[in-house]
Amino acid sequence: MLVLERLADVKIVAQGGYPEAECCRLSVGHPDALTSDPDIVSALSISGNFSFQPCSHGDFLGAILGTGIVRNKLGDILLQGEKGAHVLVVPELSDFILSALDKVGNVSVSCKKIPLLALEYEPPRTKSLKSVEASLRLDAVASAGFKVSRTKMASLISNGDVRVNWTTVIKSNTTIKTGDIISVSGEGRLKIGEINSTRKGKFAVELIRYL
What we know:
This protein has 5 helices and 14 strands. By secondary structure, it is an alpha+beta fold. The chain has 2 domains: about 1-125, RRM (RNA recognition motif) domain (Alpha-Beta Plaits, 2-Layer Sandwich); about 125-210, RNA-binding S4 domain (Structural Genomics Hypothetical 15.5 Kd Protein In mrcA-pckA Intergenic Region, Chain A). Helix 4 (about 140-145) crosses helix 5. InterPro entries: Nucleotide-bd_a/b_plait_sf, PSII_S4, RqcP2_RBD, S4_RNA-bd, S4_RNA-bd_sf. This is RNA-binding protein YlmH isoform X1.
């Protein structure tokens, strides 16, 4: 995303339906055209009586994919306990899911569209830590945040297992800034908080780890 913004006069908006969404869609356009966040995701409520037959994230995902749509058309699935789940999906498939999905596991369900503001989700649990780094390279900052060796992190990056702001990055020397979200396959997510320069010319970085 950063490359596009530097090479052209464009604005890039990532939207997943709620602030901490893992799956996001990108809108790319001229800043004058994207004056506000576009509605590029829709929310559905899947309801049923799950009191005696609880269903997992995988059950909901499997049921939705069983209708014939592909995974990259779906966003996050937010479980609502015995009530069901809220699901983010591309707008063009909302009506199809409403008509095609009638069961999750052995539980009969009904689906309806809901506004994004009606999504119910729990704020993620996080743990903050500080690290002093000689540079703001991705491999250095991420290795400190995920507590793995820099060599291992560099390997994960080159293998395509690391994303910055939902975009795969394969260069270890990518510069990180405040607000960036770093995701590592098998390790989780990390948000970059405040960055301050030290007297010795290094960087004191706040790392917010999602638990």
